[in-house]
Amino acid sequence: IRIHDLVVDEELKPGEGEKVRTLRVVSMVDEPGAAVLDVGSVGVAFVRPLRRNSYLDLHLPERGSWYQFVDGRDGWLEAAPPDRLEAIAVPVRQLIEQSRRPVAGAAARTQSRRDLVFKMLSAPHPLLVANGIADLSTIPDLASSLSDREVAILTSTLHAASLPLTTRENLIAEIATLGLRRLVEPLRSIREPALQEPAWAALRKLGAPVSADEVRQKLTGEEPRTRLAAARELLARDGDAAIPVVAQTALRDRDKQVRLGAIEALGETGSPAAVTPLEGVFATDEIDERQATARALREIGGDPAADALHRLAFQGSVDAQRYAVLVLMT
Q: Are the beta carbons of 48 and 32 closer than 8 angstroms?
């Protein structure tokens, strides 16, 4: 059992009775997703009365008012550094206020909700930002009504290195889904290799794809993840016409993970045009790449893939032939 003593400066959603000054919050050390607080940390806590059980009754030092975090670690929004506490508290206060006393009038409610969404996007905590991203779709006509200030907030969030990559990927996807064309240039300026592929996909969806020359240039660049992103982008935009180029990446790229990713991407096309290039990759001596190629051929499926495996069972190295036979039998 882990016990946290929280000193309360403000109750954002006051309960009945006397104001609480200290909360004793219990969490289980081995519970997946349990909140972990450092001594002296500050933040916003979402708590509820502790759900007791026989184990807690036996081990808690005393009875009394005990609490637990709502949703484990998601119930504690830490302000790091501490001077960011108010920036976290502001959207939480507004969210609570809207739930307790809805704004009168449909237009005023819509604007209030919109303001809250962008406050969450500006908040210095990943959980609030993630909620703001999820709520962008609730704003009517967002694409045609984005203000300069809102564009600046979205741009800042896109480039916030402190946010988890998955959060930023979700924002990129949401920008594309909602058709926010004013974010085209911020998307173009993304340089992190892990975000290159979703950014290029979003630009394509927004009708502003990066040039073919730029993508091909990235295909031979220094960063492995960017080379793989370029291979996937070529297949997405050019279809079968890109297969010979990506096949060369699958066969000759200097990074094994890029080769494996390119093989997988060829299989994901589902195109019979990828079968012959994949046969060439299967013949290599690398077992991981041979296995990846077999999976890609099976994903393409149909007679062309089956015929290729039959051919591979009678050509190439003995190991390659044996593996082709094994794939055919399974």
A: no
What angle is formed at CA 168 by the lines to CA 167 and CA 170, rounded to 5 degrees? 65
Q: How many CB atoms lie within 10 A of CB 204?
A: 15
Write down the pLDDT at residue 221. Answer: 87
The CA-based dihedral angle spanning residues 200, 214, 236, 234, taken in that order and rounded to the nearest 10 degrees: -150
Question: Which residues on adjacent β-strands are paired with residue 44?
Answer: 77
Rounded CA separation 251/181 (Å): 37
**Cis peptide bond upstream of 81, omega within 30:** yes
Distance, in Å, from the CA atom of 288 to the CA atom of 297, rounded to the nearest integer, reads 14
d(CA 202, CA 170) in angstroms, rounded, equals 11
What whole-number distance in Å separates Cα of residue 309 and Cα of residue 209? 37
16 falls in which pLDDT band (50, 70, 90)?
low
Query: pLDDT tens across 79-120, in order?
Result: 888 888 888 888 888 877 776 777 777 888 888 889 889 999
pLDDT of residue 199: 95
- Position 14 confidence tier, pLDDT thresholds 50, 70, 90: low
Would you call 251 exposed, middle or buried from its count of C-beta atoms within 10 A (0-12, 13-18, 19+)?
middle
Its sign, for the CA torsion 306, 310, 312, 317, is positive
Closest to 324 (Cα-Cα) out of 300, 304, 308? 308
Report the number of secondary-structure helices (H) and strands (E) in the chain. 17, 6
List beta partners, residue 69: 47
pLDDT for the residue 153: 95
Burial class (CB in 10 A: 0-12, 13-18, 19+), 5: exposed
In tens, the pLDDT along 217-266 reads 998 889 999 999 999 999 998 999 999 999 999 989 999 999 999 999 99
Instruction: Please give the DSSP secondary-structure letter assigned to residue 62.
Output: S
Residue 38, phi then psi, degrees to nearest 5: -85, 150
